Amino acid sequence: MDNILIGFVMIMAVVIVIGVVNEKLIKMPNDIALVLFSFLLSALLELIVSISGIRISHRISNGIKEFHLDELLLNGVLCFMLFAGASKVHYGRFMKNFKAISLLALLTTVLSSFVYGGLFYLINRLLGLELDVWLCVLLGCIVSPTDPIAATSILNKLGLSKNVTSVIEGESLFNDGTGVALFVCIKNIVNDTSEYSFLELMGREILGALAIGIGVSFVMCKLLRSTKDPTKHIMISLFSVSCVYVVCEYFEFSGVIASVVCGMFFAKQLEKYDNWRQVVDPENFYLHFWDVADALLNSMLFVLIGFSILYIPNHSHLIWLLLSAVVLNFIARFIGVYSSTLLIGKERPNQYSRMEFTTLMTWSGLKGGLSLALALSTIAFLDQNAYEIVMIVTYATLFFTTVVQGLTTSKIYKLVEKSKLKRKLSRIK
After folding, report:
1. For residue 259, which of 173, 388, 320, 340 has the smallest C-alpha distance?
2. Degrees, nearest 5: CA angle 350-352-354
């Protein structure tokens, strides 16, 4: 408990210091700054521990490790973060781009996972790592889903059009359910305990999550309308999302999808009764609470991601694994998105060409805490060598997409927009 408290104090201190310094001097997106500088700080911390053996540094690093990011995220705050993110999704734009979002969330995630697994298996053979092909596919399942927290926290601040942001947010909010279902299915194959096929597992997870999410949210929104106390509105929303997540996890449905459904349902209902809400909550107490909770939880998560270097082991093929992680992620994501565009047809947002849309969606596919949590959970069934490879590859993918791609997505967006403009002008001529 003592170490956990030390870790919490350290994380909040980092959040505050980096946030203030970044706001005054550096001025990069705050969430990216938290990942980047907490990464540098954790590297420095490890160096101090290894060289000097200073006890306080060792206690701080242990305190951070005892947060158990996989349990904290998957069994703790994930549902609240998803609820907060889903509450900000514009329902009209979401429905307008539903075909693109659903194909990206399902088809792209599945194809990317298998393409990544196949390519990594070739790298594995070249490096002599002797990993099973299904274990390589499992690694693809871990790194393929885009992250809803990274998408809603970072991409909203980069000047992308609302239509494009809606597609990126929608995919990232729903493809985690696909990724988790595929992860469980492939994990059962790796452990030789397969009980359901992927389609059976997906149907069970999605349909069950929709039923629980809509059912509980409908009842709770009726209850919310019966009281004029904004604090009770907050309590009802907290209970609703935690309830749907716990119930879904108990019945082995997707708690991730149910939390997103719950957030979107509440947002839609509050928008429907906007005049009533402004009367009973003129100070927007409810919305401000979720804004603050979202900012706090996201900030802590991005610092924990930066500090996750403390989990990364050394390896004889470290450089090759790091490079492979970045390159294969790009290739697999590109193939997955491009394949989806063949079915999306001309319903691509902003009237992008197939290559323009594929380029933008490939580069804006940020990874985050869920991928890291899934990677950490593999320690329960993988041997030490396989677990080390999974952690190295996952962290490299996560760090590159969050920091490098997160900082440059706005530039790619502008290049895509210029390409679209030139294409239109050439048609006019």
Report:
1. 173
2. 145
Report the distance separating Cα 241 and Cα 238, nearest Å: 6
pLDDT in tens, 175-233: 877 888 788 888 888 887 656 666 777 788 888 999 999 999 999 999 999 999 999 99
Report how far residue 327's alpha carbon sits from residue 335's, in angstroms, rounded to the nearest whole number.
13
Contact between 115 and 331 under an 8 Å Cβ cutoff? The reply is yes
CA distances from 104 to 51, 97, 134 (A): 47, 11, 23
- Say what the pTM is: 0.85
Are 332 and 367 spatial neighbours (Cβ–Cβ below 8 Å)?
Answer: no
Two structure tokens written together for 389? 């490879």
Summarize pLDDT for 23-53 with one digit per residue, the tens. 999 888 888 888 889 888 878 877 776 776 5
Phi, psi (rounded to 5 degrees) for 326: -70, -50
Q: Residue count of the chain, please give it.
A: 429
Q: Give residue for tokens 């490790």.
A: 65
Q: How far is CA 388 from CA 48, 128, 271, 378, 382, in A?
A: 23, 15, 47, 10, 9
Beta-carbon contacts of 372 under 8 Å, excluding residues fewer than 6 positions away, are: 69, 70, 73, 305, 308, 394, 395, 398
